[in-house]
Every structure is written in structure tokens, then in C-alpha cells.
Model the fold of this input.
Amino acid sequence: MNETKENIKNVISYENATGPIEFPLTSDIVFHYIMQNSEKALTGLICALKGITPADVKKVLVKNPISLNNLTKETVLDLLLTLNNNETMNIEVQVYEDKYWISRSILYLCRAYDNLKGGDNYSLLKSTMHYCITDQNLLPNNNEFYSHYRLLNSKNHAPYTDKFGINVLQLNHIDKATEDDISNNLVYWAKLFKANTWGAGHPGDVRLAPTGTECRQFKALAKDNPAIEEVGNMILELNTDDVTREMLEGQRRYREMFDTQYVAGYTDAEEKLNPIIADREATIAEQSAALADKDVTIANKDATIADKDATIADIESQLQKYKQKYGDLS
Done:
């Protein structure tokens, strides 16, 4: 019986998987499920995001565990954690465009920070950070790999508090990673998130390479890392279970449909508003042209008046000279 179980284990092992990973770590359901079920992987990600060591992670509590049997398409899947009983971490995977992501991230951060019950002392408020892992350009004019946002004095940049902030890991800017990002394993984790094919697996350490096909191959990244090998088996399990795949596909279609409807609504509004805006711009242009004509007319009149004033002044000057020469004839 043990041999049979071992054979089954080998069959479902990620090491035997080939081809693309349809639902990788960037799927928020896959991410949430794996992180709540793999303590080692969750600890590794926390250490990478915070730049700490596993020894610094004493206790992690997932405050919003999910059940694959009770998920709906609309479920919000940010991972809410309490670290060492004194810090709140909210981790989200954002791989869809969101025009209002900045506003939404601030709202989620504030909600996570407000963990007091009626009558609780303010000293019970925990340090709270919102972490966003994304492959979208959510931050205007920011191509940093890992960005830290805090409340600061706008003049001298002195921090208001270090207990409240937002960190953004941009998977599409691995090439901008710093030495600290590499040593903290952030680059390694970014590549795990970007891995969308199982790959053949090959020897050699490819974890620190900034670019290349190995960035997309899960086997090469998981090699000799038991925690990530466990993650690989969970990803494979979720991708091969028919019920789970149907649920993942349903959520993906819902997201795509929602995104399509948003774009369609924006396009419809644009099509309806463009003629109105064009008419208004044409009216403004006509009014501006009329005003310009009036300005030209006024300028011409001013020039005529100025010429007449100059003529009168010249005549008066000549009369004055005549009077000085011949006297007053009256």
C-alpha cells in the first residue's frame, strides 16, 4: 500500500508536469490557497517582502482563510495576516487593470489598520502594511521594482509614522531590482509569480538571473527548495482538479467580462461624449474667433484714435509756435 501511495505521489508531482501553467501564482485564488496551506512558503514570502529572516517570524495567523468549496466569482482574495501578534499584513495579487487601484489600496489599508472593537484602547492598534504584487502599471511614472510608500512631512520628509504604509512589487520591472532585492529573495519570488510554464528543469542556479526563459520555468526555480517544491505540487493539484479548474476558469471569465464591460462602458461614454465635446469645442473656437475679431476691431479703432490724437497734438503744437511768433491774433 505504501508503494502504491508513493507511486501516486510521483504521478502528481510537479516534476512530472509539462507544458504551460494555466493558473499560476498570479491567480489570486491559487496564491491565497497555497499561502494559507504552506507555512514555509508563506514565511519565505513574508521574509522577502519585509527583508527579514525566518527566525524573525515567530507566528503567522491567516485571518481570512478561504475554502475552495465556498468561493464566489466576486470574492475579494487579499491575504490578511497577523505577524507575531503585533503587525497586520494585507497582501494582494493584482494582475488586472484597475483605474482606481490607488484609491482602493488606501481604503483596504485603512480597513486593515482599523482593527479595534468598541471601547478598545488605541494602544491595541497594530502596525499595518498593504503589499501589492502586480504585473500591471498601477503607479504613474514609476518603474521601480519594489516601492515603499509612507506618510511623510512634505517639506523635510520626516516620517509621521512607520506603522502605516503601502509596498508595491512590480513583476514587470525585475530589471530594476537592487542588490537588496536580490539578497532578500524578492527577485526569486517575482520569478516564481511570473513562472507560467513547468519547464523541463535543468541543473544550475538560475534564481538570480535577471532575464531569460528560466524566469518562466517553475521547475528550474523550485529545484532543491522543499518549500517551493510543495508549492509546485499544490499548483499542479489546483490545475488538474476538475472542480477547482472550473471554479478558477469561472472567476477568470468573470474578471475578463467585468474588465471588458468596464472598457465597453468607457468606450460607449466616450462615443457619446465626443460629439458633445466637439460641438462645445467648436462653439468655443467660434467665440474665440469672434472675440479675436473684436479685439482686432478695437485695436484698429484705438490706432485711429491714436492717429487723430497725434494729428490734434501736431496742430496744437503748430498753433502754439505761431502764437509765439506772431502773437495772439484775437
In short: The radius of gyration is 34 Å. Residues 245-330 form one domain. Confidence is low (pLDDT under 50) at residues 1-10, 201-214.
